[in-house]
TrEMBL record:
Annotated positions for site Raises pKa of active site His: 158
Name by which UniProt lists this protein: Phosphoribosylglycinamide formyltransferase
Organism: Qipengyuania algicida
Residues bound to N(1)-(5-phospho-beta-D-ribosyl)glycinamide: 26-28
Residues binding (6R)-10-formyltetrahydrofolate, per UniProt: 78, 120
Gene giving rise to this polypeptide: purN
GO biological process, one term: 'de novo' IMP biosynthetic process
CDD domains, A to Z: FMT_core_GART
EC number, as in UniProt: 2.1.2.2
A Pfam family recorded for this sequence: Formyl_trans_N
UniProt function note: Catalyzes the transfer of a formyl group from 10-formyltetrahydrofolate to 5-phospho-ribosyl-glycinamide (GAR), producing 5-phospho-ribosyl-N-formylglycinamide (FGAR) and tetrahydrofolate.
Enzyme class: transferase
Amino acid sequence: MPGRRTIPPERTVPRARIAVLISGTGSNMAALLYASRLSDAPFEIVLVASNDPSAPGLALAAAEGIATFALAHKGLPRAEHEAQMEAAILAADADYIALAGYMRVITAETVSHWSGRMLNIHPSLLPKYTGLDTHARAIAAGDSHGGVSVHLVTEELDAGEVLGQIAVAIQPGDTADTLARRVLFAEHQLYPRVLADYVSRGNNPEHLLARVRELALALPETHERSSHGSPGFRVGSEKSGKFFAHFADQHHGVEHIGLLVKTGSMDELENLVETQPQAYYKPAYYGASGWVGLILNRPGVDWNHIGEWLERSWRAVAPPRLTKLMNAADDF
């Protein structure tokens, strides 16, 4: 199975499409916009939308050639206003939403629809000081630092997973306004970096391996062992265990970051590759033995499905005493 590893091709990864929602000057939107103009930026801004047609950030975006959309929320039911905002976002074919000073609470329905794809920036070191008046509250509490957090949006206000933070020292005599001005500098540094890292994670081998590792090692009596220089996962003892999965980062010149697992037959392998080439490929060397490659560096990977494949492959090589226990648990 081992062979000489060829130099992999350069990854040609499409940039993530971002819709930014603002309510005012849009300084964080501007930070994202200008960061997106860097040659190695993994995202582009495709829409700037606002609930205030007079928001200064709209004019800045338009001057930079970015599509804009504005709809005043006053006089409209929340659900109707939000539906029209989302329609504009969908029409722009956005992959993610970045809230940047958008002063509207998003409904649970929209949050659910964009779960894992909506980010927000908040001027505190979450979980401290959710909501408003964050700087005044930090000063009143005698904190040594205020700061800023970027987090995923969930139904609970400012409670989603924190993706990045910067602490900003509170100086003697600080007011909410003076602290806010310094925190804003940190915001403009943090948001573009965190957004870039987040939208790139699906093409980051370290991130993908970490997700595979978590799923593989959750199965009974498994351990990790390198195979031909790449991570592999075995079931059974360290001495006699058998591989049930291999992680492949562009091996043998293919463009994919893949997870190799065992199929039931060559017919199944060939059928998967032929009918779903966007999700499966036939790996060099391993493919001849009935292993299929699951493409991990693609949009919309279903990690529950990846977990099911890992378990199936594990069952194919695990000792009977382990599969009997697993089967009994399934029956129960």
